[in-house]
């Protein structure tokens, strides 16, 4: 039996102020999962700078917003420099910006491979290269937001899956390189989470391949053992824990958060 209030009822409050004074950057913090993460870090006492290309009407109050296109080298450099200046240093990097904007056979995706790699993989590589050196003196935490598209063969998502797979491999390797500096590096591997992007994806998939968006939502939920799509707060709770001192022995891990979906795949 599915409890429709599960996301409300199952939450236990995290220690308040556990991130007091920590300085965090959250890419793609203007909506969806990134906004939920930024909100949680602020609640925990962190100073937060977020980025996105467009406006940020749903950005959490209290976060400083830096407009930047992180699919470009210049955009990442601008964001890194501005965030460092605003925060006076960096303790937490959440590489969340990403997504998939085309849902066709990879054989038709000649033009989208580069953008997909840029925003889902190279944006994190470039941002870490700019900001991790700032952390080296005092330690810190780097989070990469990945997808269960890396785990199973999902049709029409291979470019996105490949980019996220690169991100996960890079995340694991970076953890070994940075452990001696007291910097932890983790990735979170997400299943279907209800966000503006997932709504857009359903619309695009129906446009391209037919069907009904509501049916598709039901189908996605039915494939999840816990019976519902994720809520951005499910992810934010986990990230808040992972960047906190409570997770001080966790590094190099790829944490699957998917309502049990990949565990049920055979
Ligand atoms: N939702 C899911 O089911 C799901 C599942 C697995 C993994 N994920 C991953 O979770 C992360 C967040 O997804 P979401 O569903 O919350 O997406 P979303 O609702 O579309 O939000 C994406 C955020 O990233 C920003 N962004 C996108 N492209 C950007 C660019 N080129 N430069 C700078 N900022 C950019 C967006 O702002 P602008 O558009 O204004 O730039 C927005 O703030 C992504 O990495 C995604 O791959 C999501």
From TrEMBL:
Alphabetized GO MF terms: oxidoreductase activity
Top-level taxon of origin: Bacteria
Keyword Oxidoreductase annotated: yes
Matching Pfam families: adh_short_C2
Gene3D superfamilies per the UniProt record, alphabetical: NAD(P)-binding Rossmann-like Domain (3.40.50.720)
Matching InterPro entries: NAD(P)-bd_dom_sf (IPR036291), Sc_DH/Rdtase_CS (IPR020904), SDR_fam (IPR002347)
Keywords for the protein's UniProt record, in alphabetical order: Oxidoreductase
Family membership noted in the UniProt record: Belongs to the short-chain dehydrogenases/reductases (SDR) family.
Record PANTHER family: OXIDOREDUCTASE, SHORT-CHAIN DEHYDROGENASE/REDUCTASE FAMILY (AFU_ORTHOLOGUE AFUA_5G02870), SHORT-CHAIN DEHYDROGENASE_REDUCTASE FAMILY PROTEIN
Designated name of the protein: Short chain dehydrogenase
